[in-house]
Amino acid sequence: MKRRGIVSFQTIKTDILQRIKLRDWPPGTMIPGEETLARDYGCSRNTVNRALRELAQAGVIERRRRAGTRVAVTPPLAAQIHIPVIREEIEQKGATYRYALLDREELIAPAMMRGKMALPENAEVLHVRCLHYADETPYQFEDRWINLGEAPDARDQTFETVGPNEWLVETKPLAYAEHIFSAANATPQLAAWLEIEPNDALFVVERRTWSEENTITAVKLFHPGFAFRLVSRAISNSGEDL
Known about the structure:
Blueprint: H1 9-21, E1 30-31, H2 34-41, H3 45-57, E2 61-64, E3 68-71, E4 78-80, H4 86-92, E5 97-108, H5 111-117, E6 124-134, E7 137-147, H6 164-171, E8 176-185, H7 188-194, E9 201-210, E10 215-224, E11 233-235
Antiparallel strand pairs: 1-3, 2-3, 4-11, 5-6, 6-7, 7-10, 8-9, 9-10
Helix pairs in contact: 1-3, 2-3
């Protein structure tokens, strides 16, 4: 299983999940230790440790000191994040939705985004910035990066009438999603776009999504105020709603 190039913890996590799913490692099976996995993946033990730690927190594997790591006998319930379509969210509030594209650019991924999205050097991305309105009041500023290696058909989308949020939800199924929530103060540029005062409070949602193999997109969503509603639902392994 020797790997070449930079191997991220997410790549290792995805690979281990796939091997468990394919029953290469059935429930109750001991899996190789950190040192062996690090050698197989060609990475540091810290990278392997983070992947295993997250899998253990999700209940996929069980780790015991001096006893090793094994696949959990009872598979965990799967938490499925329902990525909201912003247009539907606004319309459900009884407001009139409007979308505005600010800019769209295809480029080689900057170093910061290569790190955030685990992309190789010279990877091509699409950078889209847009606004979503509710009753002509700015509701959300969206700053999105799309991995064109994973979503090449995004090149054909102008995103002038339909936003990348809606297009991705409808066309790109995801395997994993990560959300980070934080607060920020509006910069002068954000304040101008959102029609608020500089330094006003913003609620920020950072989201990354993955296919089974690679990062699909990374986005920052900025909302005026201190709170924002995010909908999620849990499903069992059989696919039934809980």
